[in-house]
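Reopening this one. Same input as before:
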Amino acid sequence: MKAVILAAGVASRLRPLTNNTPKCLLKVGEKSILERTIDNLIKNNISEVIVVTGFLRKMIEDFLTQNYPNLSFTFIYNEKYDSTNNIYSLWLAKSEVRGYEILLMDSDIIFDSRIIGQLLSSKYDNCLALRSTEALGKEEIKCLLNEDGSIKEIGKTMEPQEAVGESIGIEKFSKDLVLRLSTILDRKILDEKNVNVFYEAAFQDAIDSGTKIYPVDVEDYKCMEIDTAEDFETAASVVSELL
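Same output, byte for byte:
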């Protein structure tokens, strides 16, 4: 299995904190967001990591290679980081992940390492971490389910009261789905020029064509995405609970 971390964004909503520092290298407590993510991967015996960089890429590359010399890193540069969304970053990684089961992760999440364990031990080949305990609004990536418990719809546009919870940005996908997503991403990026949408749009296309992706509820394990200065302040309390 390979882990894929998408870390290309500018994080303009966190300025001035991110004027000279990539969001993933902001410290929450004694460690950066990215350091916590890598440590969580190590705890789950994942040592091959693909990182898609963009804004201030050398800072990310230097940090990882200097602090984790025993891990195998592949760095992919999204030179259009300031004009594309994470679907484009995922598309750039497709040649590196073809033929592998992957753990796909956003780089701006604080989370309990046991969430990865939940996905790895899940009976489902294709699944994602879902938080069902928090109130939902317009900004969260929400999920609506089929009767069999698989995901029917994923995205921001559904009404919060219809959703079962929020996808937190950690997914486990099989080799077969990785291959299918590669074809879908080619169509969306090359044919439709859909470079500025979230990668969940590709997941939705796979679901609509018959792929089953299941939610794995993180239950009481702590997790949060950091997008704003308010999130950044709240993250400190999340970290203290993790400790």
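So the earlier flakiness isn't reproducible anymore. For the record, The chain has a mean pLDDT of 92.
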